[in-house]
Write a structure and sequence with these properties.
Blueprint (H helix, E strand, L loop, with lengths): L1 E7 L7 E5 L8 E2 L2 H14 L3 E6 L5 E7 L7
Parallel strand pairs: 1-4
Antiparallel strand pairs: 1-2, 2-3, 4-5
Length: 74
């Protein structure tokens, strides 16, 4: 199962990024936490589903979600 984390982007001093285990090294960055959550959910859906862990400003996990894989429509 894939896993993505939405975390504060401390390197740039603002914004949020999506960090994924086994990703290709790119970490999508957004201005808002909500945009980062949307991006992480989209990535998980397109990659077979998985767990999304959302971190707060303090870095601690404040929410977990299970994202289902994208289904093929007939």
């Amino acid at each position: 199962m894939s896993e993505r984390h939405v975390v504060p982007d401390r390197a740039t001093g603002g914004g949020w990024k999506v960090v994924g285990a086994g990703s290709d090294g790119t970490e999508p960055q957004t201005d808002t936490q909500a945009d980062a959550i949307d991006e992480a959910e989209r990535e998980l859906r397109h990659n077979g589903g998985g767990e999304l862990l959302i971190h707060g400003i303090n870095g601690q996990v404040c929410d977990k979600r299970l994202v289902q894989p994208q289904t093929e429509e007939a």
